[in-house]
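Reopening this ticket.

The earlier resolution said the output was attached, but the attachment link was broken on my side. Pasting everything inline this time so it's all in one place.
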Amino acid sequence: MTPLQNLLLKSLLASLVGVAWAWRDWLTAWPDERPVLRLDTRRMKRLPPVVVAVLVAQLEMEEQVRRALDRRANLRFGSTWAELQQIVARVSPSAIIADPAADERGDPAGHLARFSHDWGIPVVLYTHLTPRSAGVLLQLGQAGIRRIVFYRYDDAPRRFIDAIDWDRSGPPLRAA
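Inline output:
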């Protein structure tokens, strides 16, 4: 071997001995237990929560939505179609829960059809079952909206959870 190769080999061997010595010191530092690698989750970024935009006509309806989804999703409430559209544009929700009768001045069928058909956001209708709402529901059915929860008939918390397309937005978070 040349003198240069000999020097490199000795340096490599000395480095390996140094690493082995450091490992030996590290492994013998805990005489009673073996070292355990722990994942520090405090430094990890949390996944963004599922966001659901909501527009309902009555405070009782809002409370029912909160009761069902408050721990599973980040709820964003609006009081008009214009506010709901701003929420959708700002936070890109995973789903929308809306009452077509919440703001009749703002073309509810047009907004909901746009959200569902054009923007591809799952829409769940949450409304009163009345003869007046039947026409709007038929019109929205033609726009592709198929999920409906009726106020005071089938608005149990489980019904809201089942109505939202969690596959698109991720699994529902378990309540603590």
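Reporter confirms the inline version is readable. The chain has two domains: 3-37, 51-169. The helical segments are 3-27, 59-69, 81-91, 108-118, 131-142, 157-163, 166-169.
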